[in-house]
């Protein structure tokens, strides 16, 4: 199996991306051998745009930081005001030192919102010409993820994060393989429910990268009154160093 092909036809080494929500998580990912992190807040909600301070602190760890830009939970159909806001957010995170952004938008008919996506890519590359731009798992909610992947090169994307339209990347492996073929120069990154044991199968699809949160529940549970609809009092998640190291070893073994 050859390595994935990047934008412009460049060969892209198989890479490991870890989703993190903290500076400690970014540092743990770096120590475990990750190639980059996707930084977000509210991972339990599917991820939201993190604060400027968190972006700056994560960048200071020295690992390439790609920032999720998503202004709210609850789907991927965004109105003009939300698109305007996310353009502002992606410019701000790039100015804070991020090397890439992770964005997405759909139309109500479950096709890619190409107008919004073009605005995101244009704004990112205007602010930072070498910015990497990833389409997030909004593509897994498209009616036809394979057809959607085929149009990403024309939109200027670097890569796409996908589970192949399935609840987990492992379950969607066959579709991911088809997306790799359709995406052409755009790197396909397999993610959703990924464990180190899944890495050989996922890289066997031809995917250029794997993405996982490598998370474990921290001992910060609290009892009593919930602090919101998403707060069950069970604590938050943190990055598990052992899982990161195991994923790194699995990627390297496949490369070898």
Automatic annotation (TrEMBL):
<protein>
    <recommendedName>
        <fullName>PF03932 family protein CutC</fullName>
    </recommendedName>
</protein>
<dbReference type="InterPro" id="IPR005627">
    <property type="entry name" value="CutC-like"/>
</dbReference>
<keyword id="KW-0963">Cytoplasm</keyword>
<dbReference type="Pfam" id="PF03932">
    <property type="entry name" value="CutC"/>
</dbReference>
<dbReference type="InterPro" id="IPR036822">
    <property type="entry name" value="CutC-like_dom_sf"/>
</dbReference>
<comment type="similarity">
    <text>Belongs to the CutC family.</text>
</comment>
């Amino acid at each position: 199996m050859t390595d994935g092909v990047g934008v412009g036809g460049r060969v892209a080494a198989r890479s490991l991306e870890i989703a993190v929500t903290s500076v400690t998580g970014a540092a743990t990912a770096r120590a475990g051998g990750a190639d980059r992190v996707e930084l977000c807040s509210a991972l339990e909600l599917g991820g939201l745009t993190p604060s400027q301070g968190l972006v700056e602190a994560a960048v200071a760890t020295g690992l390439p930081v790609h920032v999720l830009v998503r202004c709210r939970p609850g789907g991927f159909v965004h109105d003009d005001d939300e698109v305007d806001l996310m353009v502002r957010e992606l410019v701000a995170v790039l100015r804070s030192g991020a090397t890439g952004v992770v964005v997405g938008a759909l139309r109500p008919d479950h096709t890619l919102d190409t107008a919004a996506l073009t605005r995101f890519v244009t704004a990112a590359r205007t602010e930072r010409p070498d910015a990497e731009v990833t389409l997030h798992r909004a593509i897994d909610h498209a009616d036809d993820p394979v057809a959607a992947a085929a149009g990403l090169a024309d939109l200027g994307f670097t890569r796409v994060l996908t589970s192949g339209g399935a609840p987990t990347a492992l379950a969607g492996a066959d579709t991911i393989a088809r997306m790799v073929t359709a995406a052409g120069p755009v790197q396909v990154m397999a993610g959703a429910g990924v464990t180190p044991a899944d890495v050989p199968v996922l890289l066997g699809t031809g995917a250029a990268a794997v993405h996982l949160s490598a998370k474990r529940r921290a001992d910060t549970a609290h009892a009593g009154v919930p602090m919101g609809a998403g707060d069950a009092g069970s604590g938050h998640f943190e990055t598990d160093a052992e899982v990161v190291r195991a994923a790194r070893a699995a990627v390297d073994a496949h490369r070898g």
